[in-house]
Amino acid sequence: MARIMLITVCHYCINPKTMNNKHIKKFDQEITELKRNQAQLQDSRQMDVEFLTVEETAEFLKLPKATVYFQIYNDIFPSYRVGKYRRIDKAELIKKIKQG
Fold this sequence. Notes:
Blueprint: H1 11-14, H2 21-46, E1 51-52, H3 54-61, H4 65-73, E2 80-82, E3 85-89, H5 90-99
Antiparallel strand pairs: 1-3, 2-3
Helix pairs in contact: 3-4
């Protein structure tokens, strides 16, 4: 989730004669944080997340649906509730299977 940060400008910073190192440091920190947040947002946009239904998961793993439901409700397979449905993140599922 992206955070939006507003840069606040104090009235002392508008006039370059009254700007001091403390103000410059503060602005540098805020700009650095904005750049970091922007990079994280771009990374998250590039990340393709594929969610599987229980049926797709069963087909993918060549297991019965009942076994997949059993694994979900015993917290063996990571899943998310979307309304009344369960969705499984394919990348997390593969990672969990590789871990054992």
